[in-house]
Design a protein that fits this description.
With about 160 residues, the protein is α+β, with helices and mostly antiparallel strands. The chain has a domain at about 5-100: SH3 type barrels. Helices cover about 35% and strands about 20% of the residues. The chain contains three helices and five strands, in the order αβββββαα. Strands 4-3-2-1-5 form a five-stranded antiparallel beta sheet. A hairpin with a 2-residue loop joins strand 3 (about 60-65) and strand 4.
């Protein structure tokens, strides 16, 4: 057999070996992380829920998902064990200072100019009243009032009955 024809198979087998090896390493690291959990540790489940470990059993763990609220999860449902500082930052917001950014409680910043506290005035040629009508492209004579349409239908119906007699 020609060695050139065997080359793709050798590469494929080698790639499968490397993928299997890295997957096994990840599984072993995850199992070790789960075994290092202790009561009081903050965790994140694979579903993205943050909780505190209350009790550990062979295959399960009791998590406190809110004060006084406990739930039983399988150990394999724990996605990450968090250190105390990270858990407190995420769950309690401790130490959250995003570059001193201030988020307003209302929409007043949307109507103010950059350097003043005075609201931005609407253009003089625009109608700023709340009752301003919007042009939808229909002409006034094209639109019949709803009552006129109903009257027209009843007249047509009456004419049809008269013709039938």
């Amino acid at each position: 057999m020609n060695p050139v024809t065997l080359l793709p198979f050798i590469v494929l087998i080698g790639a499968m070996f490397l993928m299997t090896r890295s997957a096994k390493k990840k599984q072993a690291a995850a199992a070790q992380m789960r075994n290092e959990m202790q009561p009081g540790t903050g965790v994140r489940t694979i579903g993205g829920m943050y909780a505190t470990v209350k009790e550990l059993h062979d295959d399960t763990v009791v998590l406190e998902i809110a004060p006084g609220v406990h739930a039983i999860y399988g150990k394999n449902a724990i996605g990450a064990v968090l250190d105390d500082a990270e858990y407190n930052r995420i769950v309690h917001g401790d130490g959250d200072d995003i570059d001193g950014a201030i988020v307003p409680d209302d929409a007043s910043s949307l109507t103010e100019t950059a350097g003043s506290d005075k609201p931005v005035e609407a253009d003089a040629d625009e109608d700023s009243s709340d009752d301003a009508k919007i042009d939808l492209g229909k002409k006034a004579d094209d639109v019949e009032p709803k009552d006129a349409k109903a009257d027209k239908k009843s007249e047509d119906k009456a004419d049809g009955e008269a013709d039938a007699k």
